[in-house]
Amino acid sequence: MVDLACSEAPAEAELARFAAECRFEKIPESVRHEAKRSLVNIFGTALAGCREPAIETMLATMQPFAGAPSAGLIGRPERTDAALAACLNAAAANIFDFDDTHEATIIHPAAPVFAALFAAAESREKTGAEVLRGVVLGGEVTCRIGLALAPGHYARGWHITSTAGVFGAAAGTGTLLGLPPDKMKHALAAAAGQSAGLVETLGTDAKSLSVGASARGGLLAALLAEAGFTGPSAPLTGTRGFLNVYGDPPSPDALLADLGECWEIAAN
After folding, report:
1. Judging by beta carbons within 10 Å of its beta carbon (0-12, 13-18, 19+), is residue 159 exposed, middle or buried?
2. Is 94:211 a contact under the CB 8 Å cutoff?
């Protein structure tokens, strides 16, 4: 393995800065439009999947351990805590695999990102523009990390919607929380420690569990970073960072290539 990080400023620092500081007004209208289309799609697929047996089992099993009912479940009357709501809404949205797709990576980016964002937004007074910004930037982070992993990552057997999605969920939620760049990078580090998901699980209940876990893990990563939780300086590009461990081989240049000019989420 080689050290992919620049000694002065690893790529994840710039990616975190971009996610933290890119204002809504800087996002092209065409990109916002694509994000809105993804949201319409994701609510439809979540509604379709919300009563599938896997979702029923996850809810029945996890609800007894849930905290205060602060967040809703799409298509269902129950309310639960934010972490479980993020998990179940993401799983329901992706269970049929008809949710939005970034073709270059075959990631379904919206499910983990939107589910974490909406769970966080229910307990905080945020505008629609702030949530949409989080969808765009969280989706962009997901797709760029996916490009840095593709195609060897999926071919190796990693379920890229789950493994990359946790980063987008963390970044998207981090924008909603107003994380500064240093804390945004720590959120990405906390996400890196939770990335998981196997292609072998596709077609089974376990696939939905990993997608749900990516939303829950990203939400948790952002909240922990907000509270001062820290991680390594190069969680993505370090010698034993995410890209070196999960990439086969990695393409770290994809993290920053034309960042802010070429929007991967617009190719969704």
Report:
1. buried
2. yes
Q: Quick one: 5 exposed, middle or buried, by C-beta within 10 A (0-12, 13-18, 19+)?
A: buried
* Tokens 């964002």 -> residue: 117
In whole angstroms, what is the distance from residue 158 CA to residue 141 CA? 18
What is the spatial distance between Cα 243 and Cα 146, in angstroms, rounded to a whole number? 10
Nearest to 241 by CA among 227, 226, 229, 255: 255
Question: SS3 for 101?
Answer: coil
Distances (CA, A) of 40 to 16, 108, 241: 27, 14, 35
Give the pair of three-digit tokens for residue 141. 């982070």
CA separation for the pair 67, 64 (Å, rounded): 9
Q: What is the largest CA-CA distance in the chain?
A: 51
Q: How far apart are CA 16 and CA 257, in angstroms?
A: 14
- pLDDT tens for 136-147 read 999 999 999 999
Tell me the per-residue pLDDT of 64-81, one tens digit each, with 9 for 90 and over.
999 999 999 999 999 999
Task: Report the share of the chain in percent with pLDDT over 70.
Answer: 97
Averaged confidence pLDDT in the chain: 95
Sign of the CA dihedral with 243 first, then 177, 98, and 144 last = negative
String of DSSP letters for 77-114 = S-EE-HHHHHHHHHHHHHTTS-S--BTTTTB--HHHHH
Instruction: Please tell me the predicted confidence (pLDDT) of residue 2.
Output: 39
**Cis bond upstream, residue 151 (ω within 30):** yes
What token pair was written down for 128? Answer: 């629609």
259: helix, strand or coil:
coil
- Run of H or E residues at 169: helix 160-177
